[in-house]
From TrEMBL:
InterPro entries: AAA+_ATPase, DNA_repair_RadA, P-loop_NTPase, RecA_ATP-bd, Ribosomal_Su5_D2-typ_SF, Ribsml_uS5_D2-typ_fold_subgr. The gene is radA. Keywords: ATP-binding, DNA damage, DNA repair, DNA-binding, Hydrolase, Metal-binding, Nucleotide-binding, Stress response, Zinc, Zinc-finger. ATP binds at G57, E58, P59, G60, I61, G62, K63, S64. The keyword S-adenosyl-L-methionine does not apply. This is DNA repair protein RadA. The middle region has homology to RecA with ATPase motifs including the RadA KNRFG motif, while the C-terminus is homologous to Lon protease. The keyword ATP-binding applies. Residues 313-425 are annotated as: Lon-protease-like. DNA-dependent ATPase involved in processing of recombination intermediates, plays a role in repairing DNA breaks. Stimulates the branch migration of RecA-mediated strand transfer reactions, allowing the 3' invading strand to extend heteroduplex DNA faster. Binds ssDNA in the presence of ADP but not other nucleotides, has ATPase activity that is stimulated by ssDNA and various branched DNA structures, but inhibited by SSB. Does not have RecA's homology-searching function. Plays a role in repairing double-strand DNA breaks, probably involving stabilizing or processing branched DNA or blocked replication forks. It comes from Nostocoides vanveenii.
């Protein structure tokens, strides 16, 4: 018996012949500003015709509000926008639009959950911008299963992406997230779309951050900052002030650091409180900072700086709901804790940048030059930084940079002497 022959297929003449790469029209990939500068920053300049953007985030975080604002601004600039809601009625969407001042004559609303009807609405309206809220609420009658299951999400997404590509429609698709924060539905959904952005923020805070996880048209290390209020959602081109408390006099237990969100430096305040307790297991509570890193920094303070933290509850938090994820905030956490223990306020014009090692050393962190420039711009005068910073970064003229090799040297800046025990006994 011979080997099976290769499958043959009929040759099809392509409708559009291949072109030399230099003759490809690059204007088809040009981004059009959405009217929301912070959103454009994340997208890489704006919305590209035919591009599909997946916007994911927890319920109530502000996704619908942001996309309704984007659709209204596009309509106000002369484009035709279609907002399809599978979760709310058209009347509910209009009520929100009136509240956030997102009304426009060429903004069309449709409350649909059937895919065929959604495609029919697209045929009728012929939009330049399409918003689908959300992909998990729309179902196709030709696919078994309820809306939101893997097969339905794949079918709906493929149909929306196909019509967007064929007609040059910029499409924004809302996606739900699971309990662990990942995007619900099949993983192929993230591969099919051109851009994936995540919407983040604490439910009890007004701050919202939009991050690009995938972007075929721009960088993936950019972050947009927004302020969510009853009046809607507004971009924050200079959000550092949100993360710094305003007080008449210095207070112990606080320290400022400079973090980097994407490529944007932000100043944030760390607050610490140390209180004596008779409980056999003292509390270690954190908000906005990684609890494991705070536990490590607390242990280093006890072992390397002789900090009397046994028998004390420790509370560490950030101001304004910002989350400090990178190790560059370690030194600020340690300084806030030392300040709380000694009841000595830190200089209100001082920032602390550096990673704390288990031996008590202060390690360098990336992006120091941008952090120092932001601190100088906001009139800070002193910076505690790791050794070697002067040789690797340009120092602003009005900023005094103090290099500290270890945690003990940093604590001395509080006037505590070489050891915390000198003051605490």
């Amino acid at each position: 018996m011979g080997a099976p022959g290769a499958r043959t297929r009929a040759v099809t003449t392509p409708g559009r012949p291949a072109l030399p790469i230099g003759e490809v029209d690059i204007t088809r990939a040009a981004a059009n500003p959405s009217g929301v500068e912070e959103f454009d920053r994340v997208l890489g300049g704006g919305l590209v015709p035919g591009a599909v953007v997946l916007v994911a985030g927890e319920p109530g975080i502000g996704k619908s509000t942001l996309l309704l604002d984007v659709a209204a601004r596009a309509a106000q600039s002369g484009a035709t926008a279609l907002y399809v809601s599978g979760e709310e009625s058209a009347a509910q969407v209009r009520s929100r639009a009136e509240r956030i001042e997102a009304m426009a004559r060429s903004l069309f609303l449709a409350a649909e959950t059937d895919l065929a009807t959604v495609l029919g609405q697209i045929d009728q309206v012929q939009p330049d911008l399409l918003v689908i809220d959300s992909v998990q609420t729309i179902a196709s009658a030709e696919v078994d299963g309820a809306a939101g299951n893997v097969s339905q999400v794949r079918e709906v997404a493929a149909a929306i992406i196909s019509v967007a590509k064929q007609r040059g429609i910029a499409a924004l698709i809302v996606g739900h997230v699971t309990k662990d924060g990942s995007i619900a539905g099949p993983r192929i959904l993230e591969h099919l779309v051109d851009v994936v952005v995540t919407f983040e923020g604490e439910r009890h805070s007004r701050l919202r951050l939009v991050r690009a996880v995938k972007n075929r048209f721009g960088p993936t290390d950019e972050v947009g900052c927004f302020d969510l209020s009853d009046a809607g959602i507004t971009g924050l081109p200079d959000p550092s002030g949100l993360f710094l408390s305003q007080r008449a006099a210095p207070v112990s237990g606080t320290c400022i650091t400079a973090t980097v969100e994407g490529r944007r430096p932000l100043l944030a305040e760390v607050q610490a409180l140390v209180a004596a307790t008779t409980a056999p297991q003292p509390r270690r509570a954190t908000s906005g900072v990684d609890s494991a890193r705070v536990a490590m920094i607390t242990a280093v303070l006890e072992r390397r700086a002789n900090a009397p933290l046994k028998g004390h509850d420790v509370y560490v938090s950030t101001v304004g709901g910002v989350r400090l994820r990178e190790p560059s905030s370690d030194l600020a956490v340690a300084m806030a804790l030392a300040s709380a223990i000694l009841d000595i306020p830190t200089d209100p014009r001082l920032i602390a940048i550096g990673e704390v090692g288990l031996a008590g050393e202060i390690r360098p962190v990336p992006g120091v030059e941008r952090r120092l420039a932001e601190a100088s711009r906001l009139a800070f005068t002193t910076a505690l930084v790791p050794v070697g910073t002067r040789g690797t970064a340009s120092i602003p003229e009005r900023l005094e940079v103090i290099e500290v090799p270890d945690l003990t040297s940093a604590v001395r800046r509080l006037g505590a002497g070489p050891r915390l025990a000198v003051v605490d006994g």
